[in-house]
Amino acid sequence: HTGIAGSSMGGLISLYAFFRFRHIFGFAGVMSPSLWFADRAIMKWLEKQPFAGGRIYIDVGMKEGQKTLDDVMRLRDLLEAKGYRNLRDLLCVVDTAGDHSERAWARRLHRELHFLLGLKEERVGA
After folding, report:
1. pTM to 2 decimals?
2. Closest CA to 3 of 40, 28, 21
3. Phi, psi of 85 (to 5 degrees)
């Protein structure tokens, strides 16, 4: 019932903590993670980690740059190879208008929380 979430470097550490302390965290929100840090060392480390039960939400904004988008897509693929299933225990969101900012993360936060907490999203005006 305990989760961790963050954006940028906070997203990176949330991803690390979810796998490193899988006995504590049941979900992780990973918004615009700084996967580039330490020459992308997190990716090599993650490849060696076992599947950790729980939900993972990851996102990225298209305006964050192609390298950042490629890193997040690689992360998504790595998690799927570990056994995470799209829309069940993994949600990867690409925000076409998003950049690396608090405003962009705030706009996506409701979707993150609904997914991680297993809540049904309510559509306004639908």
Report:
1. 0.94
2. 28
3. -110, 130
Query: Of the candidates 64, 55, 47, 48, which has an alpha carbon nearest to the alpha carbon of residue 14?
Result: 55
CA dihedral 20, 28, 11, 13 (to 10 degrees): -20
**What is the model's pLDDT at position 117?**
96
Q: Which residues pair with 93 in a beta bridge?
A: 59
Question: What's the DSSP call for residue 86?
Answer: B
Tokens for 93, please give them.
């969101």
Percent of the chain residues past pLDDT 90, beyond the cut: 94
Residue linked to tokens 């949330």: 14
Instruction: Tokens for 59, please give them.
Output: 């996102």
Region 39-46 average pLDDT: 98
